[in-house]
Amino acid sequence: MTATTLFQRTTGPLGAPFLLLGGSLGSNLDMWRPQLPRFGDRLRVVRFDHRGHGGSPVPAGPYRIEDLGRDVIALLDRLGIERTSYCGLSLGGMVGMWLAAHAPERIDRLVLICTAAHLPPADGWLARAEQVRAVGMAPVADAVLGRWFTPRFRAALPARVAPYRAMIAACPAEGYAGGCEAIAAMDLREDLHRIGAPTLVIAGADDPASPPEHGERIHEGIRDSRLVVVPNAAHLANVEQPDTIAQLISDHVTD
Ligand SMILES: O=C(O)CC1=CCC(=O)O1
């Protein structure tokens, strides 16, 4: 299958180590805004939108994790990046595991946040894909927000949450559905032992979408890995705990 030309934004000083950031299902590259000022000038950051998300083209689904991974390899080729560290959250983390297992020469250090190597039941993902194709994104936005943020965060900081609701509602339904189908078909468990990149696995203690047990399984499967469970964080742990997550990423990739 032909790779999709991904939308990206690159920031940070020329010559600093590269870090690619891949986001969650239903997000766009603005989900990483809380991290950018916190990285300071230590990293040259490339944020990208998965196919079907944000500013990237929206090919018809279903997608596979491999398709999303090959899109990222094409992006690296286009930007002239031979080797980079990679950090992905949720769907972005699934792509990161695929990349580190199948294109190890391109990946230096790996950070996997609130993600899973296998996330059944497939039927649930396929039903969600069917639902958004039928009714669009707006009706599912509140349910997604309920997994992205803890009730306490949503109640205390509605102005911080509102842009994320808009982000979900703006995601193309076909792109979201294709992403659901990629997760339904995904099983990266046998890939974990092939990953040699030093890996930091981060789980949100209160993540209902990919609870910490999934992070533990990834940590058990990747030989050179470390697991950190971040308290008071649901699925978008980087938004709810921006300082902690930025520090963990930055320390791991610049160590
Ligand atoms: O269920 C959700 O909306 C959260 C999620 C699971 C995988 C992903 O990328 O986001």
From TrEMBL:
Cited Gene3D superfamilies: alpha/beta hydrolase
Domain AB hydrolase-1: residue ranges: 17-126, 172-241
InterPro entries: AB_hydrolase, AB_hydrolase_1, AB_hydrolase_fold, PcaD/CatD
Domain of life: Bacteria
UniProt xrefs under Pfam families: Abhydrolase_1
SUPFAM superfamilies, alphabetized: alpha/beta-Hydrolases
Name of the molecule in the record: 3-oxoadipate enol-lactonase
